[in-house]
Design brief:
- The chain is of the alpha/beta class.
- The protein has one domain (4-190): Rossmann fold.
- It has helices spanning 15-26, 47-53, 68-79, 98-103, 124-130, 166-190; strands at 4-10, 33-40, 58-60, 86-89, 108-112, 135-142, 152-159.
- α1 packs across α6 (166-190) and α5 packs across α6 (166-190).
- The N and C termini lie close together (11 Å).
- The chain binds glycinamide ribonucleotide (GAR).
- Residues 10, 12-16, 90-91, 111-113, 124, 148, 177 line the site of glycinamide ribonucleotide.
């Protein structure tokens, strides 16, 4: 089977991107996916440094001050230089415009650190912590034009019993995210 060619989109730290890169190098995605590009909408995105250190191609277009459609047009233009099977959003904090979603219909995936039917947008771990949830969910879903509204691919539960701080919630959640995102992509790419 041909490896799926993927671009990973980030806006900041990039720990999910790092986990996916590692799993492509020597984990469950090894024979299934190849990272063609790591893209950020901010030059300050810390994850870009890691991606470069791994010899990966990185690109950045600053979204600040640009209208959504204008920015996305630039990104679509950039992506036309690549043959991509999937776009993997990993902490990419932007809603995608209709032209973008339509250009890659059914091939854009996101991870959201909550059950998307209960919480959308930013601060999902804060939401779980403040509501004292005994468990929360991580959702991997297809991306549509809405904010965290696309069809759910898979969800994983995070046990929050006994957490004492928001940092505890994030730590437990991210540990699940880093395994679960690649495991879900593996199933998708194998199908
Ligand atoms: C992750 O927790 C990811 O699930 C979340 O942002 C964090 C990014 O961390 N995404 C969203 O909230 C999307 N609505 P990372 O840059 O270290 O992967």
């Amino acid at each position: 089977m041909m490896k799926k060619k993927i671009a990973i989109f980030i806006s900041g730290r990039g720990s999910n991107m790092q986990a996916i890169v590692e799993q492509c190098q020597r984990g469950p995605l090894k024979d299934l996916a190849q990272v063609e590009l790591v893209f950020a909408n901010k030059a300050s995105a810390a994850g870009l440094e890691y991606a470069k250190s791994q010899g990966l191609e990185t690109r950045c277009i600053n979204s600040k001050g640009l209208k959504r459609l204008d920015f996305d047009a630039k990104v679509i233009d950039l992506l036309s230089n690549y043959e991509l099977d999937f776009i993997i959003l990993a902490g990419y904090m932007r809603v995608l415009s209709s032209p973008f979603v339509q250009a890659y219909q059914g091939r854009i995936i996101n991870i959201h650190p909550a059950d998307t039917s209960l919480h959308q947008g930013l601060h999902a771990y804060e939401w779980a912590y403040e509501n004292q949830l005994a468990a929360t969910k991580i959702t991997v879903h297809f991306v549509d034009e809405g904010m965290d509204t696309g069809a759910v691919i898979a969800q994983a539960s995070v046990d929050l019993k006994g957490v004492e701080s928001l940092q505890d919630v994030e730590k437990r959640g991210l540990a699940v995210e880093h395994q679960f995102y690649s495991a879900t992509l593996k199933s998708l790419f194998e199908a």
